[in-house]
Amino acid sequence: MFSRDRWNEILEALTANWFRTLLTAFGVFWGIFILVILLAAGKGLENGVKQGFGDIATNTMFMWTQVASRPYKGLPKGRRFNFKIDDVASIREQVPGLLYISPRNQLGGFGGANNVVRGLNSGAFNVYGDYPEIIKQDPINITSGRFINYGDIEDARKVAIIGEGVKKELFTPEEEPIGDYIKIQGVNFMVIGTYTKKSNNGNPEEGQNEIFVPFTSYAQAFNSADNVGWMAITATDDNSITSLKDKVIDVVKVNHYIHPEDNRAVGNFDLYKEFKKINGLFIALKGVAYFVGVLVLLSGIIGISNIMLIVVKERTKEIGIRRALGASPWAIRGQILLESIFLTIISGMTGIVASTGLIFLVNSLLDGAPASEDTMFANPSVDLTVVFVALFILITSGLLAGFIPAQVAIRTKPIDALRTE
């Protein structure tokens, strides 16, 4: 029940030496402030690093051919081989749990020789022969027109989707690229779409300088037949590509007569495995933030406990009179605990408000700064769970800080307390 007299007594006790109370409260304020700031900074770093992955499907592996390092079934060591389009069907049939399998071929590259021409303009761009599923594995934002569809695949249409960087290099701002033609290594392709995308490799310029064409028309135009340069393979949400990777590789080993124990013939990059490592790192960082924050908070709690011991000592005579007048041990204990909890929560909530204000300021500065895909820090924040955890820590800490002084108070005999000067 609310008691005005009790709260007046608490305020009077805490303001009797306000400077001492302020210094004591600062320890708890600083502990909660550091805890929230560390958690927000860790989240900002996590957001920045994960932003570097772009929108790419993280449950994905990339697979390509290398050189056979062992002889097998009469075939020599050191031979080269190519994936075939039939490998896609074999993998799909023999490895359940896969969502997308996208065979790709690649031509040219950023920074290489000019391979694309339109009128008097030319440039060096990555050209990919793809299937429609690739846009679900490595999403792009179509700014005009459309992406590849299965009609383009079946009819081997010579159509192309170009990045905004390609558009800028080959077309003037007044020209509309949709329906116009570009020449890729001497072969005409009609532009049917333009796009922008986030970079996945730290080079935002390269992400806009790519051209996508149907896999089948790529094969016809550049004589790649049924060869596949590499594959992007994504597992369903119920499976991790890491657990399916060996099965996928075993299928292509059988198809191409690769020794079962030849681990060099098929190259691969497991994006999901790397993503899990990063998640594990940030879980560890969060644990470190809690550990450091709680230690700093603990030093503040110890300070409050020491001050409450001093307060109890100063009020020994008062406590003796109250005991002599019939105050129960629980009433004395409750008063001391309430003072400790009140001081802890007030100082702690001030720390939470100050830290969230600083986080808001940092986010405002980041929002106002020029956008950059190279940043490793983005949107530092804390969720409500952190606030509730902080409140729980504060209440528990207040109880712990007041428990020892409260026990000292109720163990003092009334007659001894009254004798104290």
UniProtKB/TrEMBL annotation:
MacB-like periplasmic core domain sequence ranges: 21-249
Subcellular localization: Cell membrane
Main location per the UniProt record: membrane
Record field: transmembrane: 21-41, 288-312, 341-366, 386-410
InterPro entries recorded: ABC3_permease_C, MacB_PCD, Macrolide_Exporter_MacB
A Pfam family: MacB_PCD
Keywords: Cell membrane, Membrane, Transmembrane, Transmembrane helix
Membrane topology, as annotated: Multi-pass membrane protein
Family as reported in the entry's similarity comment: Belongs to the ABC-4 integral membrane protein family.
Protein name per its UniProtKB record: ABC transporter permease
Biological source species: Aquimarina addita
